[in-house]
Automatic annotation (TrEMBL):
Name this protein carries in UniProt: Ig-like domain-containing protein
PANTHER family per UniProt: CAVP-TARGET PROTEIN-LIKE, IMMUNOGLOBULIN
One Pfam family here: I-set
Organism of derivation: Chloebia gouldiae (Gouldian finch)
InterPro entries in alphabetical order: Ig-like_dom, Ig-like_dom_sf, Ig-like_fold, Ig_I-set, Ig_sub, Ig_sub2
Record GO terms (molecular function): protein kinase activity
Record domain Ig-like: where: 67-156
Amino acid sequence: MSEAKTAATRFREMFGALGIPVEIDILEQGPKKIELRIGKASPPTLGKFALPVARPPPPLLTSDTAPMFMTELQNQEVQDGYPVSFDCIVIGKPLPTVRWFKDGKAIEENDHYMINEDQEGCHQLIITAVVPTDMGVYRCLAENNMGVASTKAELRV
């Protein structure tokens, strides 16, 4: 499978886990670059084939832009001892730096918290094994020289 198709599959799975059906078009593929257009899929009409909807391409960040969350954190409920993941996508130019907080206190990566990010703006906080003291409000804060944005969600155990 090509890198572009692998990336498209990864994004479909990520959005699917959030309950968001997406259509992904491969716009360009080079040795060090893959450009995808990701759009929300229209639900199919019963008894009919859904015609593709023409839509403008997503905004390309050609000038400096404050951070903006394309997907926000979702509230989670998980049983004691199970892992949980908070996921979001943020864009901005220059690429925003992201920090994670629990109840207003900064989270550092360790054996309990894993923090993942990629160059496309996908950010993830994984709690490897939830304990009751993990209950609270989690916030992802994105910042660049143009501004600040944040998204938050609650974890219930």
